[in-house]
Design goal:
single chain, mainly alpha, 2 helices
């Protein structure tokens, strides 16, 4: 839209004789700007499509070349593998032959040795048997000792446990006695306090009754001053 306006402004400037910055060439002068734009767009799209196609073709070609190369490499690998396998097989056959020869030689040596070792073996067997018996006996003794030790340990453990339980019971009993003693002390204290309060109350009551009696007595025997001559008892002429 901006381009259309720009073009319109340019064309107007041309007709009025005003200088324009966006002056177009003569081939674009009488064209419809929308058509020009569409054409350009189409051209651009075509170019892009062509480029894309070319790229795709190139990519395809490259892929094909790579695949061919991979196939060649694979073929080469197979050949090498085959060659290696063949070589390995040959080597294995040679080794087998050598092993067979060695085995035969070993067999001969073994037969020679067999006679020599037979007596030695029997002697060794007897010795081993004797040693085994001895070992077995020793092992049984050790097991017996271990068993006894375990039993002793268990007894000790049991004893220890019982002692701990006894100790715990004593401790608990002591604590209970202490609590009872505390409780007894509290009760005695409370009782003493109560007795003191009662005693105090009694004292208060006694003081109050004494004061009341005194007040009553004063009311009954109220002293009245009567003038007298100075001889005899007061009130007498």
């Amino acid at each position: 839209m901006n381009q259309i306006l720009k073009w319109h402004a340019t064309e107007t400037a041309k007709t009025k004789g005003t200088p324009s910055v966006h002056r177009r060439s003569s081939k674009h002068t009488n064209r419809n700007p929308l058509q020009v734009m569409k054409k350009k767009k189409k051209k651009k799209k075509k170019k892009k499509k062509k480029k894309k196609k070319k790229k795709k073709k190139k990519k395809k070609k490259k892929k094909k070349e790579e695949e061919e190369e991979e196939e060649e490499e694979e073929e080469e690998k197979k050949k090498k593998k085959k060659k290696k396998k063949k070589k390995k097989k040959k080597k294995e056959e040679e080794e087998e032959e050598e092993e067979e020869e060695e085995e035969e030689e070993e067999e001969r040596r073994r037969r020679r040795r067999k006679k020599k070792e037979k007596k030695k073996k029997e002697k060794k067997k007897k010795k081993k048997k004797k040693r085994r018996r001895k070992k077995k006996k020793r092992r049984e003794e050790e097991e017996e000792e271990e068993k006894e030790e375990e039993e002793e340990e268990e007894e000790e453990e049991e004893k220890k446990k019982e002692e701990e339980e006894e100790e715990e019971r004593k401790k608990k009993k002591k604590e209970e006695e202490k609590e009872e003693e505390e409780e007894e002390k509290k009760k005695k204290k409370k009782k003493k306090k109560k007795e003191e309060e009662e005693e105090e109350e009694k004292k208060k009551k006694r003081r109050r009754s004494t004061r009341e009696r005194e007040e009553e007595h004063e009311g009954m025997y109220h002293v009245v001053e009567v003038p007298h001559s100075g001889c005899g008892f007061p009130g007498e002429d």
